[in-house]
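Here comes an entry:

___
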Amino acid sequence: MTLPAARIIFAGGGTGGHLYPAIAIANRIREMLHGVAEVEIAFVGTKRGIEYRLRETLGYPLYLINMRGIARSLSLKNLLVPFVIVGALVKARLLLRRFDPQIVVGTGGYVAWPVLRAAAAAGITTVLQEQNSYPGIVTRQAASRASMVYLGFEKARDYLHPRVKTMVTGNPVRTDLRGADRAEALRQFGLDPELKTILVLGGSQGARSINSAVLRSVEAGILHKDIQLVWQTGKRDYKDVTSQVGNKASGCALFPYAEDMRTVYAAADLAVARAGALTLAELEACGIPSILIPYPHAAGDHQRKNAAVTVEQGRAVMFDEQDLVGRDLLGEAIALLHSKKYAAMRAALASGETGQPAVDKIAEHIISLMGIERKDGLTA
């Protein structure tokens, strides 16, 4: 018996916030269709994005397209953008003809636009996964032609045309993100399983303002005997932070970047983090309360909008970056850990764990669009 084919292209990248949701969806589709269909999945990205750096461990073929946006500052490179766009569209059309997908999934980043545009022109079904409460430019431009837009936040509907088909799913995260043993995770970091642990998380590049605020607290001797840190400094700040911390805080596990976030999250009782949509989804999935410090220069101020929703849900508190100077960030984090508010945040996170995971909702809907019947008799 010949199995039906399921050919899907994921277009999106540049940052982990665009790439990791795509990987989560792709993996879940492959799991759901195991033994049911011949699954062929490919990713499209650029050489400048995180997808290229992770190409060896991505698990799927990666096709490269040269695509960039317009620089916000005056730059001669902006004169080349129209030619770059034309070249990207031509390459996207050739790729679609060769791969012949039934569906193209766009998850954000400039590279998604030419692939979605070429797919729509060729009559190929397109869907979008929008992570943020304020939709990115690719989503806003491509939504009208998409069969469905999967939203991480219901608030995002306010910025899309009423005729756009949307489904509020939440943001997809990997199904294996939870479940690591806390004591073992802390032992891997050389920390004490008996102590409360604060995770400082600024993203792959780090967050200099957050690192500086934590450093000031460490230098002031604010760390208590019952508190320790798991601190992702970012590659840019790692050497400076480690040299400044020195022996001032024995309970610190410092590292520039971690791909094994399952272990990182297992170690944490409270997170101090930016408010990227992927970070919020992962913290929610792992039940970790947080102090959120939105990146103030994010497009459309979307991190502040993301954080505001999470705060309204009682799962986090938010500080403005401009207020970090002179603030005892770690002192406030420690006080929060021992407060009734922290217990309420944990309870709010636990109450939100019911229902079908976002990655399952999205994977099932994509499978239904391809008309493939699963083993359980459902056409998703």
Remarks:
- The chain is about 40% helix and 15% strand.
- The CA atoms of residues 276 and 286 lie 16 Å apart.
